[in-house]
């Protein structure tokens, strides 16, 4: 498996997590929608599924790890940033095969791709705090 296949899986997973957050649809329905309506060329589909299932199953635990490090109320974090930091925190906390530098870098790249102008700075700072408190 190439690193780019995991990167594409993360990109798709962030979009699916974002959709799940906004719609509150059943996770299986969100997964099915993404697997049938998105291009899966070069995507590590198994990793996409693992990320989506893992983040949604452990969302309360992930949010509790994030909240103490925020400079604002969690409800004020944009849905895009929430999806990104939830995914990266899941990798940092539960995916021991993913080096922390990779998880942080991927989070930053996702924020640059999907977030507001300075989103990547927020994501970087928050994920650094998560790593230091592990």
Automatic annotation (TrEMBL):
Keywords for the protein's UniProt record, in alphabetical order: RNA-binding, Transcription, Transcription antitermination, Transcription regulation
NusB/RsmB/TIM44 domain segment(s): 7-132
Gene Ontology annotations of biological process type: DNA-templated transcription termination; transcription antitermination
Entry's Gene Ontology cellular component terms: cytosol
Molecular functions per Gene Ontology: RNA binding
Gene3D superfamilies attached to this UniProt entry: NusB-like
Family matches, as NCBIfam families: nusB
Described function: Involved in transcription antitermination. Required for transcription of ribosomal RNA (rRNA) genes. Binds specifically to the boxA antiterminator sequence of the ribosomal RNA (rrn) operons.
Protein family membership: Belongs to the NusB family.
HAMAP family: NusB (MF_00073)
Protein name as catalogued: Transcription antitermination protein NusB
Native species: Shewanella holmiensis
Record lineage: Bacteria, Pseudomonadati, Pseudomonadota, Gammaproteobacteria, Alteromonadales
């Amino acid at each position: 498996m190439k690193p780019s296949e995991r990167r594409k899986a993360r990109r798709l997973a962030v979009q699916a997590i974002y959709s799940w957050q906004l719609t509150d649809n059943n996770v299986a329905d969100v997964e099915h929608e993404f697997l049938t309506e998105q291009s899966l060329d070069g995507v590590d589909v198994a990793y996409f599924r693992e990320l989506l299932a893992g983040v949604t199953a452990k969302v309360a635990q992930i949010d509790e790890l994030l909240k103490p490090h925020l400079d604002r109320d969690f409800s004020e974090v944009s849905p895009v940033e929430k999806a990104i930091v939830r995914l990266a925190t899941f990798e940092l906390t539960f995916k021991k095969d993913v080096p922390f530098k990779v998880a942080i870098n991927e989070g930053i790249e996702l924020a640059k791709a999907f977030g507001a102008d300075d989103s990547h700075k927020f994501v970087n700072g928050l994920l650094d705090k998560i790593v230091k408190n592990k």
